[in-house]
Design the sequence.
């Protein structure tokens, strides 16, 4: 059952509320003036300090906390506070600052605390733990695929600089035929007929067409670039596979 603040005449939704202004190096935390002799405290963003912050909030009998969703800096604080059993609201910083009625002597953390106390802040959507973990793996996989794609481009550029027009005779240079040929080139095989013999039976182009496309102008610096691009391609392919396990 909610109570009323006699001064404001507004119902108090979260009696034991705290507000946190999230920063990269430190977080400013505010509780009600009636809950602590020191209602505003600053904690560094180190893990040990975050645990101290949680313990202090427990001492203040806090049950519900609102914090800004600033960058990624909120994540450690959010997760640690949740592990202590607090109800944590993740709120949009701009939304909190745009609520009218703020006095100039009130800092961000105090303002968040007061708005949360009166139930004026809307919690941003935060997926459950299992979904959050899955999303983290998916985001990492997407980044790895981007890195992998950039090294495919480096491979193609190195081939073109040596006038090896592999992309004209295979649909995908990273397919079976393409990679067999590229790896053979890296190993020192430059004979176009020999390279064309690596053609997979499913390849649409003839051995003769592939042979013509692989009459290259080999240069040491481009071979070096090709070798490194393939190594990075293999590395990120392995990392993507790890995400899929």
Sequence:
């Amino acid at each position: 059952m909610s109570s009323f603040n006699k001064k404001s005449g507004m119902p108090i939704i979260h009696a034991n509320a705290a507000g946190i202004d999230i920063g990269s190096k430190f977080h400013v935390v505010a509780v009600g003036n009636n809950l602590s002799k020191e209602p505003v405290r600053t904690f560094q963003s180190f893990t040990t300090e975050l645990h101290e912050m949680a313990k202090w909030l427990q001492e203040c009998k806090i049950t519900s906390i609102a914090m800004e969703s600033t960058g990624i800096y909120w994540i450690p604080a959010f997760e640690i506070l949740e592990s202590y059993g607090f109800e944590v609201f993740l709120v949009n910083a701009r939304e909190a600052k745009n609520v009218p009625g703020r006095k100039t002597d009130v800092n961000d953390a105090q303002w968040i605390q007061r708005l949360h106390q009166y139930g004026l802040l809307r919690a941003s959507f935060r997926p459950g733990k299992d979904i959050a973990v899955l999303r983290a793996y998916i985001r990492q996989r997407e980044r790895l695929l981007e890195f992998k794609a950039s090294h495919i481009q480096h491979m193609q550029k190195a081939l073109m600089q040596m006038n090896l027009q592999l992309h004209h005779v295979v649909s995908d240079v990273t397919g079976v035929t393409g990679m067999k040929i590229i790896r053979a080139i890296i190993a020192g095989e430059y004979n176009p007929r020999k390279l064309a013999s690596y053609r997979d039976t499913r390849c649409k182009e003839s051995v003769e067409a592939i042979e013509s496309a692989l009459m290259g102008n080999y240069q040491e610096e481009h071979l070096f670039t090709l070798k490194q691009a393939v190594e990075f391609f293999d590395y990120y392919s392995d990392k993507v596979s790890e995400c899929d396990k």
Notes: The chain is about 50% helix and 10% strand.
